[in-house]
Design a protein that fits this description.
4-stranded mixed β-sheet, 20% helix, two-stranded parallel sheet
Length: 147
């Protein structure tokens, strides 16, 4: 806010949206999660405050901390908002980072720098491994600057 940055905040946990909006950032707020496939998806989403994540790629899971949420492909959001270039992209989806990255048509969007959380990659609810993530990003022309 102090630096006059603008951006897009994408949050799948409906309980976190009021707090995000209260910050008064100059950003679009998208109250959906990021899709792990190149389609709009309705999923069961664990509403665990700062650790919210997709717990089942099918909706309707019965658990008091799980809600059905619509997930959108990142590129669909960028296209809708007419954003051809992203200066900085921070991705933290509690384990599905590689799946989200694989949905991006890298030849159609220019992402200058990104940071990707990988501490949950390889856990039972996730796909891929840290080395797969690094190999994938290197295949797209990126390099690891810090671990």
């Amino acid at each position: 806010r102090d630096l006059q940055w603008t951006g897009i905040l994408i949050e799948g946990d409906p309980k976190s949206i009021p707090k995000i909006l209260s910050k008064g950032r100059k950003s679009y707020v998208v109250p959906h999660c990021l899709a792990t496939k190149n389609i709009t998806m309705k999923v069961s989403y664990g509403s665990y405050f700062n650790l919210g994540r997709i717990v089942d790629e099918s909706p309707g899971r019965k658990d008091k901390k799980v809600v059905d949420v619509m997930c959108l492909p990142l590129f669909a959001i960028l296209k809708a908002l007419k954003v051809p270039q992203v200066d900085y992209f921070s991705l933290d989806v509690e384990g599905n980072e590689l799946d989200v990255l694989k949905t991006i048509p890298w030849d159609e969007v220019n992402i200058l720098a990104l940071s990707v959380e990988f501490s949950h990659i390889g856990e039972s609810h996730t796909t891929g491994s840290k080395s797969e993530l690094e190999s994938f990003m290197e295949s797209k022309g990126y390099r690891v600057a810090s671990k």
